[in-house]
Design a protein that fits this description.
single chain; 196 residues; alpha+beta; 4-stranded mixed beta sheet; 4-stranded antiparallel beta sheet
């Protein structure tokens, strides 16, 4: 830890700094939990340190979930929109110039759309329970379907200002919770509608 910079260094000499080391420090709790959110916000803005490439952004996105910064996720997708604008139909490994235009690790936004934006995550081993904790940011509506061994998990959200209608449909045998604005609401198999 370099207290002067407020960052984890990559080496004991504290001459190199990266998003990578700091992201891993957050995910492994090597950084005090009380500092994690501020540290993540800092490294997301600091362009003077080594930047995570597309594949390592997966870990940054997981750190965003961990620190409660999920609503900032959609703002991190510009590199993927740029790839689409270049005509790529698969995701590149690194920013241009690159010749690895089909890199599975760079496809993490596909996973994060379901696990962070729709917020559907396992809440117990074997996905025997579910937590639905959406991070819609500026979106006003969302329709998602997440495959589960027991059947599909469906989440439909429509927001209008501060009001929201949330529908969660769980397959038979699956229960869990919806977390909305810091409060937990029980979910049972079948369809449940909430109006906030």
């Amino acid at each position: 830890w370099d207290s002067e910079k407020g960052l984890l260094a990559d080496t004991p000499e504290k001459t190199e700094f990266s998003q990578h080391a700091n992201i891993l420090g957050i995910l492994t709790n090597s950084v005090e939990q009380s500092r994690q959110k501020d540290l993540l916000q800092k490294i997301m803005k600091d362009k003077s340190i080594t930047q995570a490439t597309y594949y390592f952004k997966f870990y940054m996105f997981e750190a965003m979930k961990k620190t409660g910064l999920g609503n900032e996720y959609l703002g991190q997708l510009k590199p993927w929109y740029d790839m689409l604008d270049m005509g790529l139909t698969t995701f590149a490994e690194n920013p241009e110039p690159t010749r690895s235009d089909c890199h599975a690790w760079s496809a993490s936004p596909l996973y994060e759309m379901l696990s962070m934006v729709a917020g559907v995550m396992p809440a117990a081993p074997g996905f025997s329970k579910v937590l639905v904790k959406p991070n819609m940011s500026y979106l006003s509506s969302l329709i998602s379907t997440v495959p589960h061994p027991a059947g599909d998990i469906k989440v439909i959200i429509n927001k209008n200002g501060r009001q929201a209608r949330v529908i969660v449909e769980l397959p038979p045998g699956l229960s869990g919770e919806l977390e909305w604005e810091g409060k937990l609401y029980p979910l049972n198999p079948g369809r449940k509608e909430f109006n906030f």
